[in-house]
Amino acid sequence: IPCVVSAWGAWSGCAEPCKTTHRVRKRHIIQEPRNGGEACPALEERAGCLQYWAGQGAECKQALIPALITTGGFGKARKKRAAADGKQRAGYCVEFQLMAITPGCLHSHHSYTRWMRYLSKGHRVCVECQHPALNPRSHHCSGDGTGSKKNQLLQWQAVGNPRCQGTWRRIRQLDTCSCPSVHSFLFI
């Protein structure tokens, strides 16, 4: 008789606000295996999580939140959707210097993660903040380094590969974006 488990329960909230952490979902055993039946599968799953709001609905301090980024090419499709919705808002770009990069950025072989190979320590990158990542109240993207001290190391993480992350220093904010295509990224 094989093990029988319940369906997955709902995901929990993030373990901690204002930092990259995890959430959990669980299931339970309905019937234990007997007489050499198939063993029970895992009863708990974890997934990456980032909560941008602290208790009582207060927004997390910008400098504490790692920036979530993807390739700048994704922005063209995003702009078309926003314009079709009539929600196009003026965005901005932030220039950063990459200070540290994990090896996980180079070891991903999926087609949707090839852009991560253009991340190189010491290079300057340009990251665009546009709708819907642009918060309508604060007029900033989470993790853009607004309010950080000069030369403060800020964290970033690539969407699609949690092993690809690192640190950068904010150089300047640009009100009009003219990012080079190779080193152009997008806040998520």
TrEMBL record:
InterPro entries given in the database record: SBSPO (IPR039942), SBSPON_C (IPR056801), TSP1_rpt (IPR000884), TSP1_rpt_sf (IPR036383), TSP1_spondin_dom (IPR044004)
This protein's record includes keyword Glycoprotein: yes
One Pfam family matching this protein: SBSPON_C
Gene3D superfamilies to which the protein is assigned, alphabetical: Thrombospondin type-1 (TSP1) repeat
Name of this chain's protein: SBSPO protein
Organism: Pitta sordida (Hooded pitta)
Ranges where the SBSPON-like C-terminal domain occurs: 86-181
Keywords: Disulfide bond, Glycoprotein, Signal
Residue ranges of domain Spondin-like TSP1 in the record: 3-50
Signal listed as a keyword: yes
